[in-house]
Amino acid sequence: MPEDIAEGALMLKVEGLCKRWEEFELKDISFDVERGEYFVILGPSGAGKTLLLECIAGIHVPERGRILIDGEDVTYLPPEKRSVGMVFQEYALFPHMTVWENIEFPLEMRKVSISERKRRVRELLELLRIEELSHRYPGTLSGGEKQRVALARALATDPKVLLLDEPLSALDAPLRRKLRDELRSLQRRLKIPFVHVTHDQVEAFSLADKIAVMRDGRILEIGPPEEIFTSPKNVFVAEFVGFDNIFRGEARREGDLTIIRIGDISILSSEPANGSVTVAIRPEDIVVSLKPVESSAQNVIRGRIVDVIPEAFLVKLKIEANGVVFSVYVTRKSFLEMKLDVKQEVYLVFKASAVKIL
């Protein structure tokens, strides 16, 4: 969060929000967004992310709960009274209007004076670096240009909160990376909270000050990106953010370590537990070795490669150890240098601190 934004100063508060829409339901949604915070709502398709955003925008009215913006209860106010801007997934630009007219439209609807409208549109064209597009129509624009115009239009009324519904999903990968950086930079300059929904984990991790993970109309976990991606507390969250190795086992605490029996193998965790547990290990936290490694603070397990799955610049290995199958990533360079292949015997090496108990 920017250093000049006072901590604890809330701009958006969602409290106990419930909303039925056709066969779907948002269930008791609560979270706070601070001033100047980039808040990402992460979850799979069908989680209810867009419906939640539309409730905040005023497109839908909840059955229960409250929405407060800058301390004001806006739960039942129409969209134009909420001081909220929204960028829709497909941008929703008016095809018969020029870029200038699209940006000017919300100001015209609020009966802003012509001189003030011109000043504000010029300011936004410059901010988003789209001055040369002002007389063009949406049908002639690229995906990245459309996104910038949609952002400018959403910011025209100087909102207190900006809502973004999967704003990068329609773009190709290189442009998505470029505009992701631009979004973060824009948010830092404007110093207003962005509430951004996505199913993309990389997008969430790179943009967010805080992440809320949603599933089936509920928020399962909220926290900083590092916490969500390295120490989740929920099994679904762990699976969704890339903990490919999730096992049930029996735990026994001994001194500073916990011994967890999983099938016919035992692993060590630095987290305290006793009894039945679920453990999770990120595939990136496991090192593949051709020889055993002696260390009291690490797990060293002998196994055999049962599958090799190339993935862009990495290679995913499935390694079976006494009936337990682990997923591990190695770089393509390491894969070739170690001459790894199916049926080869290897050793899995990972720290006790990498074994998370959910």
What attributes does this structure have?
six-stranded mixed β-sheet; disordered N terminus; five-stranded antiparallel β-sheet; about 350 residues; alpha+beta; about 25% helix; single chain
Task: Please provide a written account of the structure.
This protein has 358 residues and is α+β, with helices and mostly antiparallel strands. 36% of the residues are buried. The protein has nine helices and 20 strands.
Q: What's the arrangement of secondary structure elements?
A:
Blueprint: E1 10-21, E2 24-34, E3 38-42, H1 49-57, E4 64-69, E5 72-73, E6 84-87, H2 99-109, H3 114-127, H4 143-155, E7 161-165, H5 173-190, E8 194-198, H6 201-207, E9 210-215, E10 218-223, H7 225-230, H8 235-240, E11 245-254, E12 257-262, E13 265-269, E14 275-281, E15 287-289, E16 298-311, E17 314-321, E18 324-331, H9 332-337, E19 345-351, E20 356-357
Parallel strand pairs: 3-8, 3-9, 6-7, 7-8
Antiparallel strand pairs: 1-2, 1-4, 4-5, 9-10, 11-12, 11-14, 12-13, 14-20, 15-19, 16-17, 16-19, 17-18
Helix pairs in contact: 2-3, 2-4, 3-4
